[in-house]
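User: Reviewer 2 asked us to show a designed sequence for the structure in our supplementary figure. I'm pasting the structure tokens here. Could you produce the per-position amino acids so we can include them in the response letter?
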């Protein structure tokens, strides 16, 4: 009886700390299996936003506020979202500046997804719902004969689509 009680207490402790969730990785829901095509089309839109120094052109590839509200388990998701969106705008402008005079001659080639893909479980990264996260990806483009690239730091999936959440490193304050 003592062993059974100890086992039940241990099981309750593991469940309450979330250790059980971190060790099990359920398959993604059908609606959350991202397509490679959505990543390529989104990257093309993002590249156009950078070339034209117009972050609005890249917003179809940026996670929407509605999806963010569903996924995030924080007290004020809109405040967090506004900060991410402001960083996205800043990063698009910075990447445009890096292109300089080459912006007019730059052409999109492809987005290469890294092997750093993982299933983000509830409560990890302050999330309420699970999703796929894809980190440290590279957008390749060409200027003249030269192939270049820049990092797309973090992409998350939702409803069969990939969305950018961070172009550069995100630091919590």
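Assistant: Here is a per-position design you can include in the supplement:
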């Amino acid at each position: 009886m003592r062993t059974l009680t100890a086992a039940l207490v241990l099981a309750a402790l593991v469940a309450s700390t979330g250790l059980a969730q971190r060790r099990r990785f359920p398959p993604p829901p059908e609606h959350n299996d991202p397509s490679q095509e959505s990543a390529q089309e989104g990257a093309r839109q993002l590249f156009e936003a950078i070339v034209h120094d117009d972050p609005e052109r890249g917003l179809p590839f940026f996670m929407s506020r509605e999806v963010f509200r569903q996924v995030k388990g924080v007290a004020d998701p809109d405040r967090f979202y506004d900060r991410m969106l402001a960083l996205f705008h800043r990063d698009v402008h910075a990447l445009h500046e890096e292109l300089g005079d080459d912006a007019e001659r730059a052409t999109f080639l492809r987005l290469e997804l890294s092997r750093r893909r993982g299933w983000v479980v509830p409560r990890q990264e302050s999330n309420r719902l699970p999703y796929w996260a894809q980190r440290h990806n590279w957008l390749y483009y060409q200027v003249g004969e030269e192939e270049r690239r820049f990092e797309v730091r973090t992409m998350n999936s939702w409803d069969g689509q990939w969305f950018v959440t961070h172009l550069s490193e995100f630091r919590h304050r």
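For the response letter, you might also mention the following. The two ends are 49 Å apart (CA to CA). The helical segments are 2-17, 19-23, 36-51, 65-71, 77-99.
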